[in-house]
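Appendix B. One record, verbatim.
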Amino acid sequence: MAVSKRTEEEQKELIFDIFSKCRTETASSRLQVHSSILCEQVFLWYKVFLSADVDKMGLEIVNVINRFTNAETISKIPEDKDGFFKYLAVSIESEKAASFREYNEEDKIKIPKEKKRKLREAEDFIRMTESQLGRKLTNDEQTQSISKWFKEQEYVDLLKVKKVGGLYIYNNENGETNILDSVITRSDPTLDDYINKTDIETLREAVKSVLNKKQKRSRDCYRALFTLHCVEKIKDYEGLYPVLDKNVLEICKDGKNPNQYEIYQMYNPKAKKSGAEAMASTNLKEFLKDIKTCLNNK
């Protein structure tokens, strides 16, 4: 992310001006563009002027901006600049607190507070880096990322059990644990787990139900992101074809899958790469969570 050439007040003026456009915009396509730009500029403000590590809080910022630009909540946000920034700061801090609270509640094993904090930071860094790159980190990249917080052996020792501090590890065919071959993931069961346990018809109906509850302007983008997820993560997804995006399936036929941000830009062509990366990651995460909730309620 480039260093801002503006003063902090100029940066805040820009952010408030973009949000004001979100407040008055009636075209859904333009609103999504403004929302993506707003995320980028709030990232920049936190990084440059507040010296915040946005790698650790990027998704929290995106979640807040998504709520801010939602038609149901945008009218509740103060219309003056000072009120807006106070509301923004409190909302982001509340989102961070809720995220940490959820993380701690998931912890099934008591580990030292400081090490738990480091585990969370390592997880968030890898999660955001992969979102920004639009791909999985290589073993070397994961090793380098982990080294910011742990020596490799210390990290592996912490993860010798199946689940520690909200992180998963997986066994290879020899029954040995190799943390560098795994993707670090939050402990909520993934949709992939549900697919292995749920008959395809029930799953297909859940996906259809969740799609129908999304706003029409964003429904196709959610469907396309979910389709890419199925292609990359699910072995037997043929039974889901009726609810998947046919164009994405066609694009992926030759094995050259697009990145998440490219899928997002298909439906939001004016969104810049950095904003599209963040929005695509957040939207997919939200969609998968909604499907899990729907399945749990059946």
